[in-house]
Amino acid sequence: YDKYREEILLYVYSLCHSMEAAEDITQEVFVKAILTIPEHQENLRAWLYMVARNLTWPEGRCYCFSQGYL
User: CA 35 to CA 38: how far, in whole Å?
Assistant: First the structure.
């Protein structure tokens, strides 16, 4: 968590331009990692970025807009 949190937070913020939403999504990324990370995940960083992108843009729509952050 400590190794990637800031990096993922900044990435999500760059996608949605809302720090509040970025913090919420970043938290969800790490909860999802704890619950579902593949056992032999070779590139954890890439997997976290993929989860962050998918949570920020579910079904091609910006999470930030749909949740009223922007």
Answer: 9
**pTM value?**
0.80
How many Cα atoms are found within 13 Å in the side-chain-facing hemisphere of 67? 15
Please write the tens of the pLDDT for every residue from 38-58: 676 788 899 999 999 999 887
Distance CA 65, CA 46 (A): 25
Cα–Cα distance between 65 and 2 in angstroms, integer?
Answer: 28
Q: Is residue 53 within 8 Å of residue 68, measured between CB atoms?
A: no
Q: How far is CA 9 from CA 23, 43, 56, 57, in A?
A: 6, 18, 11, 15
